[in-house]
Write a structure and sequence with these properties.
single chain; mainly alpha; flat
Length: 284
């Protein structure tokens, strides 16, 4: 027992010494050419964290418990790994920021181009389908332009930061710009998706009904197979009646396909929840 304890103590001392030596080498790198990367906020923060963890380990080595030394060693090793990764990445960071600005700019232009089709698609929606089918999309064009304008300003700022060798700030602005572009893209595409959805249902109104009925029949078969007809049979039968009522309520003139689709989706989601509960019950 004493030999094992002595061996473990020796390993722990070696780990402490190795972590402190590695920390010293990293800090020494920053007194040479790598010191120029200290102007990058992430590198400066990681360096400060390393120095703090270095002091903590030295204190633990002198007066701390064995657990204190183990914890401090792991934390110093982690801080060293983070700083080393940042130093390896730093030389290419400016170019990375410039590429990111260019990539985001290309995506911005593509979304702006797609946005030009929104008024025409909204006009088609209003002309071919009830107004309620697109009422929630009425402000999409204006809102998408707002997001695109914000993204353009952010990318201009990112480009300026990259030109002044502040790539971390540039990349942060690019990240914000991408969020704005994503929001605009969602608004633009939702109009096209809605038009495609409604035109598809109009071309084959029975398809959503067939899909919903298939889900109900599939759930009924599962209830029979799992011996759960007594618990779920009447509930699933009621969904068939619910589908009948939804289909019967669809008017022949100026039908609201969006409402029709969503009501059938509600049935499908309800049935899917029942199927999930039956499977969980069987698994227990």
């Amino acid at each position: 027992v004493l030999r094992r304890a002595a061996a473990a103590a020796a390993v722990a001392r070696n780990d402490v010494d190795a972590a402190l030596a590695d920390s010293g080498l990293l800090q020494q790198r920053l007194t040479g050419p790598d010191g120029r990367w200290l102007s990058y906020p992430a590198v400066a923060a990681a360096t400060a964290a390393l120095q703090t963890r270095d002091r903590v380990l030295r204190d633990a080595r002198d007066v701390g418990t064995a657990q204190d030394r183990r914890t401090a060693t792991v934390e110093l090793q982690r801080a060293g790994a983070e700083l080393r990764e940042l130093l390896e990445r730093a030389p290419g960071l400016v170019e990375e920021a410039r590429r990111a600005v260019g990539s985001a700019g290309t995506r911005l232009a593509a979304v702006r181009n797609r946005a030009t089709g929104v008024p025409g698609r909204m006009s088609t929606l209003l002309r071919e389908f009830p107004a309620d089918s697109s009422a929630d999309l009425a402000g999409n064009e204006r809102r998408s332009h707002g997001h695109l304008g914000a993204a353009e300003e952010l990318l201009a700022g990112a480009k300026a930061e990259a030109a002044q060798d502040r790539p971390e700030q540039a990349l942060a602005l690019v990240g914000q710009a991408r969020e704005e572009i994503g929001s605009a893209e969602e608004l633009v595409d939702s109009v096209a998706d809605r038009l495609q959805l409604l035109q598809g249902i109009r071309a084959d109104p029975a398809k959503p009904e067939r899909d919903a009925r298939f889900r109900v029949r599939d759930a009924q078969r599962l209830a029979i197979d799992r011996g759960m007809v007594g618990e779920w049979g009447s509930v699933l039968d009621a969904q068939s009646g619910r589908i009948d009522r939804i289909v019967a309520a669809l008017p022949e003139r100026n039908p609201d396909y969006l409402k029709y689709q969503r009501e059938l989706e509600d049935v499908s989601e309800f049935v899917a929840d029942i199927v999930n509960r039956m499977r969980q019950r069987s698994a227990r």
